[in-house]
Design a protein that fits this description.
This protein is of the alpha/beta class. The protein is 34% helix and 22% strand. The chain has two domains: 138 residues, Rossmann fold (3-Layer(aba) Sandwich); 54 residues, PRTase-like (Ybab, Chain: A, 2-Layer Sandwich). The N and C termini lie far apart (40 Å).
Length: 211
């Protein structure tokens, strides 16, 4: 299965999530790629959308390979393969400090006029454009679980089966459109996987009605 772009993937996800329509779900995107997707899904389901801020911790010499992730509180998830990838304690602490600073900078950019929406007691659907190791999704789910949502759902277009199994231990429900065994990178399952820039994220978030 190849998705045309994130818009098509989001439309297909919205169809799979139709059971939540009319229940005022909170759709939370992992920036940046999933933000336009979350907006489309929220509109389709009659819910609200926002971002959940997490950052992956990249491997030494290979920053695109996630050895873990960190959430807005500073809690970090580390994959069991982090040491094998060459990440010692010093490297991990430096990476955590760097990514936490990025999270704080993004929060100041994204939410200067609109505070984050409280997930407590809500049906919360966390959206990403795909999962590889699942590190950022696991960090996002951990952060949100502390906020006492009514239900915590992970929704993605594509992910490998072993990652879905890990994520399923942290979410109440997992919705995934395609789980191929032959998985190398999320981008291989999109015809168009162009980068989403901060400007687009800020514009989408600023369109929301102020509480």
């Amino acid at each position: 299965m190849i998705f045309s772009n994130r818009t098509q993937a989001a439309q297909l996800l919205a169809e799979k999530l139709a059971a939540f329509k009319g229940k005022n779900p909170l759709i939370l995107a992992i920036p940046r790629g999933a933000v336009p997707m979350a907006k489309l899904i929220a509109d389709a389901l009659g819910g609200e959308f926002d971002v959940v801020l997490v950052r992956k911790l990249g491997a030494p010499g290979n920053p695109e390979f996630a050895i873990g992730a960190i959430d807005e509180t500073g809690w970090a998830y580390l994959g069991p393969y982090a040491a094998l990838a060459g990440a010692d304690e010093g490297f991990i602490e430096r990476a955590k400090a760097r990514e936490l600073e990025t999270i704080r900078r993004r929060r100041a950019q994204y939410s200067p006029l609109h505070p984050p929406i409280d997930p407590q007691g809500r049906i919360v659907i966390v959206v990403d454009d795909g999962l590889a190791t699942g590190s950022t999704m696991l960090a996002a789910l951990h952060a949100l679980r502390q906020r006492a949502p009514q239900k915590l759902v992970c929704a993605v277009p594509v992910a490998p089966p072993d990652t879905l199994e890990k994520v399923g231990e942290q979410a109440d429900e997992v919705v995934c459109l395609y789980a191929p065994e032959n998985f190398q990178a999320v981008g291989q399952f999109y015809a168009d996987f162009g980068q989403v820039e901060d400007e687009e994220v800020i514009a989408l978030l600023s369109e929301r009605k102020k509480p």
